[in-house]
Amino acid sequence: AQSVAQPEDQVNVAEGNPLTVKCTYSVSGNPYLFWYVQYPNRGLQFLLKYITGDNLVKGSYGFEAEFNKSQTSFHLKKPSALVSDSALYFCAVRAEYTGTASKLTFGTGTRLQVTL
Amino acid sequence: KAGVTQTPRYLIKTRGQQVTLSCSPISGHRSVSWYQQTPGQGLQFLFEYFSETQRNKGNFPGRFSGRQFSNSRSEMNVSTLELGDSALYLCASSLDGAPAQPQHFGDGTRLSIL
Predict the structure, then answer these.
(1) Contact between A16 and A84 (Cβ < 8 Å)
(2) In sequence order, which residues have a C-beta less than 8 Å from that of residue B64 and are 6 or more positions away?
(3) Structure confidence by residue, pLDDT tens digits, B35-91
């Protein structure tokens, strides 16, 4: 069975500082990895994905994520946080080998709080 | 391009009733998935439809059902509502459900059971 762990319920960072939101995964075979963000009373917004290729993936709003196969991690990063980045962030994994039979599995979410 | 549209946004029901939620995917998207989001269980996959057929199913009781129409619009039905069904129900669409494709989510229907 596949799974995603987001070890931090909340991450606090000051505006202008770099931020990291951690994610580790477990899946058979090659993973497809995704990050989503959820603002209050809204659905999930897609930020970025890792399919194959470069381990550093760039996404929307200045976010990037680093894929590390040996550590089975896919941490979300941003060089300079904004107050408007405060939201709930979800990491998700899907297995490549089962094709359309695979399901998207989400982590429990990490609340990012950016303060002035 | 319009995003995923879910109606209604809010719904209040009582135990034992049934409810139908609607989802219109992004134009051209043929795969529609449904998720239940609760504070305790997080995001849980309900089912996926593609070309009017249920392709994948999560671990929910038979009270939860869905269907997809020829225009790719989807509905989800929950019968004999229980207090524990109170949740945000999210619909997501993608072109054809291939695992590399990101899913695009609607803003959800918040269902409250009294």
Answers:
(1) no
(2) B46, B47, B76, B77, B78
(3) 999 998 899 999 999 999 999 899 999 999 999 999 999 999 999 999 999 999 999
- Residue B73, number of CB atoms within 10 A of its CB: 16
Task: Place A99 in a pLDDT band, splitting at 50, 70 and 90.
Answer: low
Q: What is the DSSP string of B20-36?
A: EEEEEPPTT--EEEEEE
Of A41, A46, A100, nearest to B98 by CB-CB distance is: A100
pLDDT for position A61:
94
Nearest residue in B to A33, CA atom:
B100
Give the span between the Cα atoms of B15 and A54, in whole angstroms. Answer: 51
- CA distances, A21 to each of A13, B34, B46, B104 (Å): 11, 26, 27, 21
